[in-house]
Amino acid sequence: KAGGFFDADFYGAAGLAEGPLGRDARNGRVLAGVRRSYVDAVLPYFTPAGGDLSWTVAPRFYDYQMRYDPAVGESGLQSHVMAFGSDDAFTFVVNKPDAEGLRGRYGFRTAFHRLQAPVARPMGNGWILSAVPSMGYQNLTLDGGGLVTLTGSRGTGGARIEARGPITKRANLLVGVDGEMQSIGYRADYVDDGGTGSTSPDRRRIASAKYASTAAGAYAEGEFDTGNGWIFVPGLRVDHYQPADAWTVDPRLAARWRFEERSWAKAYGGIYHQPPDFYEWDREVGTPSLRPAMAV
């Protein structure tokens, strides 16, 4: 069956549609949704004539999502393709100087787009092989009334491949690998008046950089049922990060005890590492050799 909805008001509009491709589901199903605000376009018609306002604010956003589900193949192959993203902006205009002399146009905009294509296929004996390739793009723009402007972008690409299934009647195993590569760039243009208050071109400073970072890992996890209410889940993960050329090893253990039909207790323990944010590895404002943070 096909269906959907559409809704609109003073602030914005949203719609969604879904259904099979063709007369039946043999060609798969598709879903598409979008939301868009237009208050930034409507607002000027409701402001006083002549624009006699000290300041105005104009938010604007849109987001979208699309998904395609092919029909399940004869081998049991299941897959779908997803694309989603958003673009949000906020503009603040000071028309009349305040007590500090602040005036001008200030803006902030951020956007991201992402594509994923998960695939899963039965392999026999209860085992399933799955893969999730993905890619994305993100950018950010900041305008501080002409005093400072900042633009940044980040592109990512990665994948996760794993296999899971039983090894005995009371034991299951999960093994996998994953990795991600990022390309990051930014440019900052700002006033450095040295305390003089001058905003001439020779007082402006520009900082920019572009670099890449990578992360790759392998992991394994077992699940063992003792048959008397206890389930133990040991695991191990190994990662490598660049540009720090850092290796991490994370052993983990979880236990679950079912002492009644609907009651159980859980306990977890292990070592967890997290790489620095991309700006912390920046050569200009961060430390490229910074090690991943650790928690127990």
Overview of the molecule:
This protein has 296 residues and is mostly beta strands. It has one helix at 39-42; strands spanning 3-8, 12-20, 29-37, 55-69, 78-79, 81-94, 104-116, 119-124, 127-144, 148-168, 171-191, 204-225, 230-242, 246-260, 263-270, 272-274, 293-295. The protein is globular.
SSE arrangement:
Layout: E1 3-8, E2 12-20, E3 29-37, H1 39-42, E4 55-69, E5 78-79, E6 81-94, E7 104-116, E8 119-124, E9 127-144, E10 148-168, E11 171-191, E12 204-225, E13 230-242, E14 246-260, E15 263-270, E16 272-274, E17 293-295
Counting H and I runs of at least 4 residues, what is the number of helices? 1
- Protein structure class: mainly beta
Q: Cα-atom Rg, whole angstroms?
A: 26 Å
Q: In percent, how helical is the residue content?
A: under 10%
Q: Short description, anyone?
A:
1% of the residues lie in helices and 67% in strands. It is mostly beta strands and 296 residues long.
Keywords:
67% strand; globular; 15-stranded antiparallel sheet; two-stranded antiparallel ribbon
